[in-house]
Specification:
By secondary structure, this protein is of the alpha+beta class. The chain has a single domain, classed as Sufe protein. Chain: A, CATH 3.90.1010.10. About 50% of the residues lie in helices and about 15% in strands. The protein has a three-stranded antiparallel sheet, covered by helices on one side. The chain starts with a helix and ends with a helix. The structure holds zinc ion. The site of zinc ion has 8 residues, from α2.
């Protein structure tokens, strides 16, 4: 094995470590007393389910929780998402989702945005396994549904 390929293996190990850590000790599972946004999502290809609740304060995500069942990728992704959007506006959260989605579908490279993605970057390794991309995206498309619902509710008010 060349030096270069073992370097890549190390990176994959690190990513795998982050994903397993979130799967084994999922963050932000405490049910919120009240929430402004919520949505549930299902990935029928794998049987993954995720429900996300978000609390806003002055337009900033101040609390977020998820509940779910399914494979390690789907649940780790949900856990990483909840950490990633805390402190962001909905616009910023949506931008992160779009960037992540593009990345998973190979339409955007990682290199220009590593700083912003943090642990989300760990999920990028999943794109090598196209069938698991839907697992990794489930929590994010669920968040997008919640944001869309919230925006249309606000428009009616
Ligand atoms: Zn899955």
């Amino acid at each position: 094995m060349s030096t270069q390929s073992s370097d890549f293996a190390d990176v994959d190990d690190l990513y795998q470590e982050i994903i397993l850590d979130h799967y084994r000790s999922p963050r932000n599972q405490e049910k919120l007393a009240e929430s402004d946004l919520e949505a549930e999502g299902v990935n029928p290809f794998c049987g993954d389910e995720v429900a996300i609740h978000v609390k806003l304060t002055d337009g900033i995500v101040t609390a977020v929780s998820f509940k779910g069942i399914g494979c390690s990728i789907s649940q780790a992704s949900a856990s990483i998402l909840t950490d990633a959007i805390k402190g962001k506006t909905l616009n910023e959260s949506e931008a992160l989702y779009l960037h992540f989605r593009d990345m998973m579908y190979g339409r955007s490279s990682l290199d220009d945005s590593v700083d912003h993605l943090g642990e989300v970057e760990a999920l990028a390794g999943v794109k090598k396994f196209p069938i698991r991309v839907k697992c990794a995206l489930l929590a994010w498309t669920t968040l997008e549904d919640a944001i869309k619902k919230y925006a249309s509710d606000e428009a009616v008010k």
